[in-house]
Amino acid sequence: MITLVPIAAVAASDIEHLLDLAFGTDRHGRTAYRLREGVDALPDLSLAALENGELVGSIQCWPIQLTETDGDPAPLILVGPVAVEPGRQRAGIGRMLMDAALARADAADSAPMMLIGDASYYERFFDFSSRHTRGWAVPGPVERDRLLARLRPGQVVPRQGVLGPRIAALVPGGD
Ligand SMILES: CC(C)(COP(=O)(O)OP(=O)(O)OC[C@H]1O[C@@H](n2cnc3c(N)ncnc32)[C@H](O)[C@@H]1OP(=O)(O)O)[C@@H](O)C(=O)NCCC(=O)NCCS
């Protein structure tokens, strides 16, 4: 049976090991890491999946922003990495982690969520789409069809802007 716990309940070194297994040890150069440089993960939206007490998956979310050309920052939440231990992939654990984080974000009426990932997974199951992000500038290389955002009904995001960390974010839930 899988249980979800706050990520802080698991040793940081165990999470790092899981991420190395899922993404490789060269993962730190990825553009997503630059988006959240200098900020802490949002504790309410960052979870670990345990199976019989063993770590099998994790999700982290981060406060970032899209700075418009006039300088106004629009808050966003960066989702990821989402990782499942290679031997336990495709058993629903990734979806469980995503569903839990999205449900918590929705319940807290959080800022819109974005990520860099496979549309064939994140659009298919979680309603993320690259159509919201076409005018966004990113501090690093990115495949545009992997730059995805998810808006709840009524939410809007600026069409243009530059993505970066939201250094001053202090409020739990990311708003
Ligand atoms: C991507 C990841 C988080 C998904 O979690 P998971 O627990 O393995 O997947 P789930 O059980 O939730 O979902 C399974 C479904 O998603 C599909 N799926 C899984 N990973 C996918 C991917 N990268 N792209 C497209 N579809 C994917 C499976 O085919 C399956 O579909 P089906 O039900 O029609 O057979 C996990 O596989 C992982 O950590 N992978 C390594 C990191 C990685 O490659 N990430 C790429 C995305 S950024």
Explain the overall architecture.
- It is built from four helices and eight strands.
- The protein has 175 residues and is α+β, with helices and mostly antiparallel strands.
- Strands 1, 2, 3, 4, 5, 6, 7 and 8 form an eight-stranded mixed β-sheet that branches.
- The termini are far apart.
- It binds coenzyme A.
- Residues 22-23, 82-84, 89-95, 117-118, 120-121 line the site of coenzyme A.
Give a brief outline of the structure:
By secondary structure, this protein is of the alpha+beta class. 23% of the residues lie in helices and 30% in strands. It has a single domain, classed as 3-Layer(aba) Sandwich (Aminopeptidase), CATH 3.40.630.30.
Task: Please state the CA-atom Rg, rounded to the nearest Å.
Answer: 15 Å
CATH superfamily grouping: Gcn5-related N-acetyltransferase (GNAT)
* Tally of helical runs: 4
What is the helical fraction, as a range of percent?
10-25%
CATH topology value:
Aminopeptidase
**Which structural category fits the helices and strands?**
alpha+beta
Order of helices and strands: EHHEEEHEHEEE
Jot down its keywords.
binds coenzyme A; globular; eight-stranded mixed β-sheet; single chain; alpha+beta; Aminopeptidase; 175 residues
Which secondary structure elements does this structure contain, and how are they paired or packed?
Elements: E1 2-6, H1 12-23, H2 31-35, E2 47-51, E3 54-67, E4 73-84, H3 93-107, E5 113-116, H4 119-126, E6 135-137, E7 147-150, E8 160-165
Parallel strand pairs: 4-5, 6-8
Antiparallel strand pairs: 1-2, 2-3, 3-4, 3-8, 5-7
Bound molecules: coenzyme A.
